[in-house]
Amino acid sequence: MDASEVEFLAEKEMVKIIPNFSLDKVFLIGGDLGPFNPGLPIDVPVWLALNLKQRQKCRIIPPEWMDVEKLEEMRDLERKEDMFTPVPSPYYMELTKLLLNHASDNIPKADEIRTLVKDIWDTRIAKLRLSADSFISQQEAYAKLDNLTLMEINTIRAFLLDTLNCMYKLRSNLQ
Amino acid sequence: MDTQSYFPVPPGVGMEENFLSLDDILLSHERLPIRTECTFPRLGFLEKSIPESPGTKMELPLWLTKGLYERKRKVVSVELPKVYKEGWRTVFNADPNVVDLHKMGPYYYGLGSQMLHFDSPENPEIAQTLLQTFIARFRRTMDSSQNAYNEDTSAFVERLDCLEKALFRSGQSGLNGFQSWEKGQASQLTASSLVLNYRKRKITDVQP
Lengths: 175, 208
What we know:
The structure holds 2 protein chains of 2 kinds.
Chain A: H1 3-10, E1 14-19, E2 26-28, E3 31-33, E4 42-45, H2 46-54, E5 58-61, H3 68-80, H4 92-102, H5 110-137, H6 150-172
Antiparallel strand pairs in A: 1-4, 1-5, 2-3
Helix pairs in contact in A: 2-4, 3-5, 4-5, 5-6
Chain B: H1 22-27, E1 31-36, E2 57-61, H2 62-68, E3 76-78, H3 86-94, H4 108-115, H5 123-147, H6 154-157, H7 162-183, H8 193-196, H9 203-206
Antiparallel strand pairs in B: 1-2, 1-3
Helix pairs in contact in B: 4-5, 5-7
InterPro entries (chain A): GINS_A, GINS_bundle-like_dom_sf, GINS_Psf2, PSF2_N
Subunit structure (chain A): Component of the GINS complex.
Protein name (chain A): DNA replication complex GINS protein PSF2
């Protein structure tokens, strides 16, 4: 799986926007998107929000978790815990990149948020590598993967699966 | 997108070889020291040192040895190469990370697994050493493949066995994919490497 494919899946998440145009209810295959009235907030998928923003037809409201204090708490909690802590959103990395690239004027303290999210990401990836290493060096049979996001799994998937394949074949030599 | 148009057949790790894998074909060219147990009449032209009497030592490639080896009719008996013997095994058990596996024969794991076909009495220890070496070296390989972005890794990679090199490459590709996505290069269209080689004239070159 590519990083771009994970980003595509992330674009299905809902985000709040404030449109500046009006439109009746739209009936799409994936679901209905409610009537748009200028100045009234409405929930739409991220792909639509980004498209409207690029055409300057809306203002994006950052999701609740995209706030400096909350992210700092999460980062400190992540550093303290050995296991993976619950994430703000299953696609936090992709949403951060998309929203901060296209709508940074609607999000206060964008740079700090970017740094904090990167810190959280680095901590989680380091924990993931530690647990992969202990998984292999102790030849355990299974590992618990609570609270891991798809993007993190995606970066390590190819390497880990190849290693496990090799290890399995070398182990079958023992018989 | 990073999809390949050519999927090479991977080497079969372990006691099976993949017939179509280039790595396995190259592996089977490694020479093993053997002792002949019976005469090879009139085959002296094949190799200068070929014996006419049984019990001579010589070196044959793996593919030939595998074909000639038979448990019941003793045609050849295989000695272990130096790297899989007792002395080197203790070195590997002590600290596998310092060993230059490429120098020990670029196909350490592959050849070791193939040696298990030849029913030597030390087979369980060889298999165990292979596994333990692999596990111990895994940490270094993972760390350097996941952390070295845009750096020169040749000093580390040249000490790796072929199997580990393939793992290193897949780790690097995961890392590079993520980094290029983060920089936004994933959505930029670039000419495919296959087409660049055709050296066609681009429209910007033709127009005055």
